[in-house]
Structures are given as C-alpha cells and as structure tokens.
C-alpha cells in the first residue's frame, strides 16, 4: 500500500512542482528505480497546465520514478493507495484562486475542476507538504491553505521554505520562519535554496539527482536529501499516530 503526500499551496509559482519532481526523484534514487521490478515511487500531477507532465515528457525514459497525470482520472488517485507496486506517491497540485472563499458558508477550496482535483488529492492524502517562499506576499494564501483546507481535514502537514536565495541575506528568511512559528505550524528544518540549476533543469531534461557533478549541484542535492529524510521521518510518525 502506498503512502500519499500532496504538495499544496493555493498560491501559484512557489515551488510545488519543483519540490514534487525532485522529492520524487530523491526518494526514488534511494529506495528504488522505475526500471526495477518494483517501482516504489509515483509522481502524480493533477495540474491541468501540466508543468510536471511537460517535465516528465522531457525527462523521458530516464525518469527514476513512475509518472502519472491524474487530472482526468481523479478516481485513480484513490486507487493509488491500493496499488502494491507503489510505496510512495507524491501528488503535485496547481495553484488556484478562491475569490469567494471568505463568504460565510463558502467551501474554502472553492468550485470548479481544479478544486475538484485538489479535493480528490486531499481525500487520499496521508501527509501534506506546504511550500512557502520567504516573501510576505505568500502569507495570506498559505494561511487559507493551512487553516481552512488542511487543518479541518486533520491531515498532518509540514511547511517548507522554498526558493530562498542566500544572496538575498537572511532577513526575509528569518521573518518567514518567525511568521510560520507564530502560527504554530510545523516548519521543516530544511530550506530549499534557490539555484539556477533548478529552473534550468526542465529544459535540460534533468531531475536533481541527475545534475552534473559540481559543488553547486551537490548543495542542491543536499537540500532534497534533507527534505526527503525529514518528510519520511514525519510520515512514519504520522502513521504510528494513526495505528496507535
Ligand atoms: N529552489 C528553486 N531554485 C530555483 N528556481 C526555482 C526554485 N523553486 C522554484 N523555482 C522556479 O520558480 C518557478 C515556479 O516554480 P514551480 O513551477 O515549482 O512553482 P509551482 O508552485 O509549481 O507553480 P504553479 O502554482 O504555477 O504550479 C519555476 O520557474 C521554477 O523553476
Ligand atoms: Mg506547478
């Protein structure tokens, strides 16, 4: 039976797809490969714009994990949990707007096909990763995502600061950490740093585990190895809590 992790933040462009693809690749390189008999990692996209799909097509046969586009097969997401050949599924979701979410009685997920896709992903989720960039613009959608969408469902989650450029200094990073802690949200110790390598990766048909060896690529890989370790340890804790 697979465990299912959803990468979610309704704010767009904050690193969901980058994290989904590279976390899948990192876990897959450690626990097994798609061309092994057992394909333990599935990266799943429910993004109609399909940036992760596009990425997967470009990576082609060399992908270290199984890839599926589930936007047109939402029932397939629930079946993921029963698939014995997959041990870990990571679902990439799109950013989306909820203009009337604050109206009394409104569903905070909103309406429409993207809301339906996100709902299906959350129905199957054991765990949620919430990426957040170290800049105040992302705070409100993140609050809506966690307080009104994740918490009421009781799904364990972890906030991960992503795309932090060390050259920008630590002020925004520390402000963001303080904001997350003030909310009482669990914050990953791992920060995914900004590297040009990541934004070039799709065009270069690469995932983080396959970047050409260099000091920079090793740093970039370290972020994802640390995140994979934190994620798996928290997931194990969450499963223990469920079975206790
Ligand atoms: N750690 C990083 N280093 C460098 N570039 C990054 C990093 N994380 C994200 N980016 C870049 O920022 C842009 C947005 O990232 P990404 O597509 O992962 O966000 P997203 O949350 O999936 O967006 P959407 O909500 O539109 O699906 C992309 O161009 C990506 O390459
Ligand atoms: Mg995306």
The kinds of small molecule bound in this structure are: adenosine-5'-triphosphate, magnesium ion
Derived structural class? alpha/beta
Total DSSP E strands: 7
**Residue runs with pLDDT of under 50 for 5 or more positions:** none
> What is the alpha-carbon Rg in Å?
17 Å
Average residue pLDDT: 88
| CATH architecture group name | 3-Layer(aba) Sandwich
CATH 4th-level superfamily: P-loop containing nucleotide triphosphate hydrolases
Shape: globular
Number of folding domains? 1
Q: Look up the CATH topology.
A: Rossmann fold
Relative strand content: 5-15%
> How far is it from the N-terminal to the C-terminal residue, by CA?
18 Å
Order of helices and strands: EHEHEHEHEHEHEHH
